[in-house]
What we know:
The protein is an alpha/beta fold. The protein has a single domain, classed as Rossmann fold, CATH 3.40.50. 34% of the residues lie in helices and 25% in strands. Strands 3-2-1-4-5 form a five-stranded parallel sheet, sandwiched between helices. Helix 1 links the parallel strand 1 (4-8) and strand 2 (32-40). Helix 3 packs parallel to helix 5 (122-129). It is globular and about 40 Å long. Mean pLDDT is 84; it is low at 49-54.
Amino acid sequence: MFKRILVALDGSDLSEQIVQGLEQIQLQSTTHVIIAHVIANFTADPDVAVDRPQTDTELIPHHQLEKLQAYQAALPCKSELEIVVGDPAEEIIRLANIHQTDLVVMGSRGLTGMKRILQGSVSSQVVEDAPCTVMVVKLK
């Protein structure tokens, strides 16, 4: 069904639920999963190439990297880990375009009211602008 899936994980408690949501999709051995972790940085860096992901595992704490690698190792299909820096919504959309994904799986922080207006909603922006289907997992 889905050949390429981008899974956006932020290291929060919601990450576990996102992975559980991914398990509901019947992954085939031919499915390729890209686990993405975006380090929020809202200032543009002109030295970063915009046409491909910039992976740097030294940018996140070791325990977070281990958790991401454990999620990756548990998948029953081919997978890779992308760690990028930038605006979370823009980077998720960019990675979905680069990897030509069929599906993006991500969480929702559940912001409402004024917080949603001021901070914006990453999941809403991705749903609006992604080139593919987006599955949003809500915090239980």
